[in-house]
Amino acid sequence: MGLWTKIIPAILFVACLALGLQTWRSSRQDAAQLKAALDSANQALAAANTRQQDRDAQLQKTLASLNDAKRRASTATPAQIVQNLPTLISLPKPITLAAPLETSEALGTSPGSQSQPTEPQANIPIEDLKPLQDFAYDCQACEVRLTAAQRAKTQALTAARDAAVNSAKGGTRWRRITRAAKWLLIGAAAGAIAAKSVH
């Protein structure tokens, strides 16, 4: 009986030591994995930021070019606008301008009365109506996709941040609880060994 009272505490001590060593190794491995994951995430984030900056710079150039063209077109005559329109929208038939009518002719008054020219009228062929309508719908769809993409980007960044915060805290709540329970068991076993060895 005296031999067993010496062997059992030694076995418990070795078991606690092995459990503690396993927990320490697991903790170090988790820390190494976290560091590797964070390094990889940082590299991916840096590369993504660089690509985004390149896209943003290209976008700014394109927008500046479009704004410049729009500013130049703001002083264009109706004839110039009609001439330039096919470069912006693909239409089956060109839009044409009708010659301005004299006010007296438009109203059907006598030719001898005072007349003033009216603005030229654009003639839009029937075949152009559907492409113009499709173009308007495509513009609205682009705006919706842009809004959705911005929302998705915000959600992805939030999810990545939450995952990093979870990893920094030591994993999920369940993983932290099991790790704390292991250390509690180690402490209890060490206390039991110490109590046995005193008696």
Q: Overall mean pLDDT score?
A: 76
Using only C-alpha atoms, the radius of gyration works out to 39 Å
Beta-strand content: under 5%
User: What's the total count of β strands?
Assistant: 2
Write the element-wise H/E pattern from the N-terminal end onward.
HHEHEHH
Shape: rod-shaped
What is the SS-derived class?
mainly alpha
Helix content: over 70%
Give the distance, in angstroms, between the N- and C-terminal Cα atoms: 13 Å
**Largest sheet, strands/sense/barrel:** 2 strands, antiparallel
Going across the biggest sheet, name each strand in turn. 1-2
Give me the number of helical elements: 5
Low-confidence stretches: none
Task: Describe it.
With 199 residues, this protein is mainly alpha-helical. It has a domain at 1-75 and 172-199. Helices cover 79% and strands 3% of the residues. It is built from five helices and two strands, in the order ααβαβαα. It has helices at 2-73, 78-88, 103-107, 126-168, 173-198; strands spanning 96-98, 121-123. It has a two-stranded antiparallel sheet with strand order 1-2. The mean pLDDT is 76.
Topology, element by element:
Blueprint: H1 2-73, H2 78-88, E1 96-98, H3 103-107, E2 121-123, H4 126-168, H5 173-198
Antiparallel strand pairs: 1-2
Give a summary of the structure in a few sentences.
Helices cover 79% and strands 3% of the residues.
Keywords for this structure?
single chain; 199 residues; mainly alpha; two-stranded antiparallel ribbon; 5 helices; rod-shaped
